[in-house]
Design a protein that fits this description.
Blueprint lengths: L8 H24 L5 E8 L6 E8 L5 H16 L6 H18 L3 H8 L13 H4 L1 H7 L2 H10 L6 E3 L13 H10 L7 E5 L2
Antiparallel strand pairs: 1-2, 2-4, 3-4
Length: 198
Amino acid sequence: MDYRQHPLYPCISLMLLQEVLNRRLFSTVREKKRLTYDANFHLTGFERIHGGWYLVTVTAKPEQAQEALEACKETLQAARTWDPITRDNLQSAAYELVSKHQGALQTNRYWVDLMSGLQLDSIPEKDINYIRDFVPLVRSIEVEDVQKILETLDIDEGMWSCIGSSGHTSSDADPAAELERDDLHGHSAPMSFGRNRM
């Protein structure tokens, strides 16, 4: 059976892409540009719905928030275009994913999560192969599989972004300026939110 026909193929591909992009964001936005304490990329896919969404969260100083947001966008755009995913990127992500999976197999909660829906008629393709084939499938995925998924992510016009701050940003700030800023960013929200149909 071609691994691309396996029911778990889309899910594993998304998980690998998430690992790769998390490493890219950490390397670029935190280590190289020093704009954040933490940067995370999270992809959500569904077993019964075609499509999903992604979320990038960054923790940064208020005065560096806009620059951190732009750095995240640049990192995602670079991975899609001039700095594509490499075999080394994928192998590191696969090793990390397999390690997490094998470690989590020691917990009951993970087993319950894996087996959720195995007997549901509404998820007919989910069977014991979801568990048995996890590691071999992770090791079968090729760079081009993950790169194709990355290229479907909407990083331009369809991306929603928001900068939110919590607490006081400065003790001597002008109250009028604070009110004006609150009008623009008056609620806490993820720094960058994207949606996409995959």
